[in-house]
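Dear H.,

Thanks for agreeing to be a second pair of eyes. The structure we're designing against is below in token form, covering all 212 positions.
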């Protein structure tokens, strides 16, 4: 038991970095994904956004992190911060997934609602904000929450560039003390956090009457 208390501060410090990656990615990727989903309706840039989504969803996130941190300096874009490099990769990757989720939600809205908005002389912004977005939010909530939970687990990939997250903290303690206990402790951190998010997702779904 004393060993658990001994390694807990290191794991907690690593988990703070994990939380940073998680929170900042969500704050940036969700609106960026929503914007991409709406812009996909424009023929001029639709093909470009579809190509971006195809690349982000078609290649491993691990490869994208490596490309941003180790590859961009080869073309003159030096990123000194490991955290910043990881955030670039995570935001671009998850924005693509959220864009597809939101696109599906937008496609589920009947065309008649757009026509009704025109009859009421709503602007495009009013139509999106007052009519489309509230319905899309309800439609995509289960899929979006599933991606949120996936993000928690994917955040462990930042160790590949040496960012001191909870996985690297646990691995360091494991190698030093020759025991698997730190890894099990790190797994417990993830399990509790995902459990909290799962309960939150169920409450949100209940609020939107998914279980009626």
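And this is the sequence the design step returned. I haven't edited it by hand at all.
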């Amino acid at each position: 038991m004393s060993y658990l208390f001994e390694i807990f501060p290191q794991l907690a410090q690593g988990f703070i970095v994990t939380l940073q990656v998680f929170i900042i990615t969500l704050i940036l990727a969700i609106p960026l994904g929503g914007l991409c989903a709406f812009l996909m309706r424009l023929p001029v840039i639709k093909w470009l956004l579809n190509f971006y989504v195809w690349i982000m969803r078609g290649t491993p996130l691990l490869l994208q992190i490596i490309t941003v941190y180790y590859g961009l300096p080869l073309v003159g874009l030096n990123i000194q911060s490991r955290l910043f490099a990881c955030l670039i990769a995570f935001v671009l990757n998850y924005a693509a997934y959220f864009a597809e989720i939101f696109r599906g939600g937008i496609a589920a809205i009947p065309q008649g609602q757009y026509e009704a908005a025109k009859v009421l002389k709503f602007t495009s912004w009013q139509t999106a904000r007052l009519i489309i977005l509230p319905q899309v939010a309800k439609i995509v909530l289960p899929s979006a929450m599933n991606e949120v939970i996936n993000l928690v687990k994917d955040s462990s990939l930042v160790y590949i560039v040496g960012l001191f997250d909870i996985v690297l903290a646990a691995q360091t303690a494991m190698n030093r003390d020759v025991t698997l206990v730190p890894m099990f402790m790190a797994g417990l951190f993830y399990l509790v956090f995902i459990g909290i998010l799962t309960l939150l997702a169920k409450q949100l779904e209940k609020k939107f009457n998914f279980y009626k």
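Two observations from my side: Helices lie at 2-39, 43-58, 61-71, 82-107, 111-119, 124-154, 166-177, 181-207. The chain is about 80% helix and 0% strand.

Warmly,
E.
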